[in-house]
Amino acid sequence: MKFKLLLFCSFWMLVFAVSCNKDEISFDAPSQELSFSRDTVFCDTVYHQVRSETYAVKVYNNEDKDIMIPKINLEKGAASLYKINVDGKAGYEFTNVPLRKKDSLYIFVEIAPQATGPEAIAEDRVIFTSPAGQQHVTLFSVVQDAEFFIQTPTNPNVLTNNTTWTSNKAKIIYGDLTVDQNITLDIQPGTKVYFHKNSGMKVAAGGILNINGTQSQQVIMRGDRNDPYYDTIPKNWNSIRMAAGSLLNMNHTRLFGGTKGLDLRQSTATIKNSFIHTFQEYGIYAVASTVTANNLVMNNCGESAIGIFKGGNHSYTHATIANYSGTMGSLNRLGIFATNEWKNDSGQTEQGALQNLSILNSIVYSDRDNSINFEQTPSQQFQYLIQNSSIKYAGASGAGFTFDNNPMSVIQSIKNEDPKFINYFTAQMNLRVKADSPARNKGATTIAATVPSDIVGVTRTTNPTLGAYQ
Questions:
Q1: Signal peptide: which range, if any (predicted)?
Q2: Contact of 66 with 97, CB cutoff 8 Å
């Protein structure tokens, strides 16, 4: 009994001693500078009163002792547009922050700003003050004023009057925004249109969508996540769907990051000087539609940059239609796919004549064996012309057409000669060709005369280079 009592007392004395020892840990003033996982936090472009995602910075104690950081604070204090959380506590200023030796702590940063104009820079600093000196981490974001279009059960989100969007506010779309029948939406130069996840735009029968960018003020249409990470990721939004009888005019526009880009259903589209890239399925998905495109640049689409179904009437002049992807390697990644067939929403197969598909002074290339694939229904019209263009071609069995000895449909074109793009994997998709590219000076001047300037305004009337860039 005495032994058990002695053991019991010894146990609690040990617990008490350990507890006292823990409480007596001493934290010294830092004698060295701290180090950080990054010295600048670049937040997403954010919109008026919309909270950003949360960003993390790790603060490291490289000393062989426990330290007490005297002060961590936002330079602008309570007036800052930013909020920080230091080791689990939110605020603007923190004193005597402990940090164990060779350990780290997290600082979480977010911003939920009030916009003061169309676009402004929000900048602040997280200041670390100690005897070792003052250090800081810079916080940086672009803040945009925004106009919201939100579809709800009681708000179908339909434009029922002719509407003009200007660049004074970004346009943020939640759900679907519909341009009503026989209504025109004009989007002016420099306007930015952002789609939330699973959102898109629909243009009803007879509706007109005019996207009027300029070379110096492109119209941007993308997902609403602006972190550079999302510049090369698809499926951030759905598509722009044009109903039968609707009309699209698109100039100097950058459209990217969704499931389908332009979803055309028996509609007419005129596309000039534009970039369409990074879509999970198709950049252009055209069903029995008419598409006329000049100076078009495309890349990084899962199934095909252009998908032509149920025929239609198509012309692509001085287009650079590439398809290279580091993230969608398991998909087909064609440049152009064309067929007479189309499965409707009921699963039934419909047929249509391909009245014309012209590929003129263009580059259609990918990292697949064939950049173009035709699937013709024998009883249907399938009229195509590949003239003065460069394509990837492995053979008729995979491409669905004959390249050699086909003088009526393949004229003065080249196959399997790498166009030598400057860089096809960057976010900006630099699909200019190098000085020694086989695409140099291979265009027909008569075709170039119909599109006398390239996508950046350079004249191409003599010695035209294939594709969108001279």
A1: 1-21
A2: no
Q: What is the pLDDT of residues 383-395, one digit of tens each?
A: 999 999 999 999 9
Q: What is the CATH number of the domain that holds 135?
A: 2.60.40.10
Domain-terminating residue out of 143, 159, 179: 143
Examine the domain organization and report whether 113 and 86 are in the same domain.
yes
Residue 232: phi and psi, rounded to 5, are -120, 25
Which sign, positive or negative, has the C-alpha torsion 454, 457, 461, 465? negative
- pLDDT at position 6 over 80: no
DSSP annotation string for 77-92: GGG-SEEEEETTEEES
Distance in angstroms (rounded) separating the CA atoms of residues 372 and 365: 8
Same domain, 138 and 150: no
For the cut 90, the answer to whether the pLDDT of residue 48 exceeds it is: no
Could you tell me the two tokens for 212? 């009027």
Contacts 24+ apart (CB under 8 A), 454-458: 454/295, 454/318, 455/273, 455/295, 455/297, 456/215, 457/215
How much is the pLDDT for 22? 43
Where residue 11 falls among pLDDT bands split at 50, 70, 90? low
Q: Are 384 and 401 in contact (CB under 8 A)?
A: yes
Q: How confident is the model at residue 112 (pLDDT cuts 50, 70, 90)?
A: confident
Do 240 and 127 fall within a single domain? no
Total domain count, the chain: 2
Residue 330's Cβ-count burial label (10 Å; 0-12, 13-18, 19+) is: exposed
Amino acid code (one letter) for 209:
L
This model's pTM is above 0.85? no
**Tokens of residue 46, six digits:** 């954010």
Backbone angles phi, psi at 4, to 5 degrees: -65, -40
Quote the CA–CA distance of 269 and 250 in Å, as a whole number: 8
For the cut 50, the answer to whether the pLDDT of residue 198 exceeds it is: yes
